[in-house]
Design goal:
Strand content: 25-35%
Shape: globular
Structural class: alpha+beta
Radius of gyration: 21 Å
């Protein structure tokens, strides 16, 4: 069969985490409910928040222009919209998928909450990156099963409290029996997010969807008529909260690796509303 096509075209690849430092609004531009006028982007098949590869690429391109010469930006990202006759970029940017979301905890302030579906998909996607590049799998980590009814897997004791002889974790106003469990998938983090080991909570897929609805931020925004001094427009915007953790990957020719590492490091801006303090995130390479 020969080498995978992606390996013949792209000799390098890098998965990375995206940690929200402020609320993020990767807007979909479409109204999906009676309350939210500006929702975040979502996967059609799961309804989970996502940042589309095209949106991520555009945001990183704007940020790269501050770090790289114009020629390098053009080589990596391709021409600007409307300038397609200048060729195409050499890097491929994948969608950023949700991995963990912060949820208020009665003890320990907040927990990073995830589910078996999100963890197992994360492992599969990392294995896919390695297989496409001919590097072999990231490791044969066993998948995570759903906790029992009313239970949550926790990786430490920072969020747990003892009540009437039971170990509990309380997220929002929902009580779960805390089951201490070592999370093998944390090895894939490579120590990049040390606090995850103290704050990680795994709930069932159904419970995660329930908590996600409460964790997402829906904020009102107004526009003032400068001449009349009255509200001219009111809308409700959905944002991902600070400390949301997402992941993505980029494929590239090996000679562009150093330039891409300059772009995919430190603080970047993703999504809209920079002037109101939204959209700042930390990029954390996983390799």
């Amino acid at each position: 069969m020969g080498e995978p096509l992606v390996k013949r075209i792209f000799s390098g690849g890098m998965p990375y985490l995206i940690r929200a430092l402020t609320p993020l609004h990767p807007g979909s531009g479409a109204r999906v409910s009676g309350l939210v006028d500006l929702p975040v982007q979502r996967e059609a098949h799961t309804d989970l928040p996502v940042i589309y590869g095209s949106s991520l690429k555009g945001a990183l391109r704007a940020w790269a222009s501050k770090k790289l010469e114009d020629g390098k930006v053009l080589e990596i990202f391709g021409p600007k919209p409307g300038e397609g006759d200048k060729g195409m970029g050499k890097a491929v940017f994948m969608d950023a998928k949700l991995l963990m979301i912060p949820v208020r905890s009665l003890k320990g302030v907040y927990g990073w909450v995830t589910s078996p579906f999100l963890i197992n998909r994360f492992i599969e996607d990392l294995n896919l990156v390695d297989e496409l590049l001919g590097r072999g799998k990231s490791g044969q980590l066993e998948g995570v099963q759903d906790p029992g009814k009313g239970e949550a897997f926790v990786s430490g004791e920072r969020l747990t409290l003892e009540l009437r002889g039971k170990s509990l974790v309380i997220l929002e106003d929902v009580k779960y029996k805390a089951v201490n469990k070592e999370m093998e998938f944390l090895k894939l983090m490579g120590g990049k997010l040390k606090e995850v080991g103290e704050r990680l909570v795994v709930v069932s897929d159904d419970e995660f969807r329930r908590l996600l609805k409460r964790a997402l931020m829906v904020n009102p925004h107004i526009q003032i008529d400068e001449e009349k001094g009255v509200v001219n427009n009111l809308w409700f915007q959905e944002d991902l909260p600070p400390e949301t953790i997402m992941y993505s990957a980029v494929f590239f020719p090996k000679e562009l690796e150093q330039d891409l590492r300059k772009v995919l490091s430190g603080v970047v801006h993703v999504g809209g509303d920079m002037t109101t303090g939204l959209g700042f995130a930390e990029i954390i390479p996983l390799r």
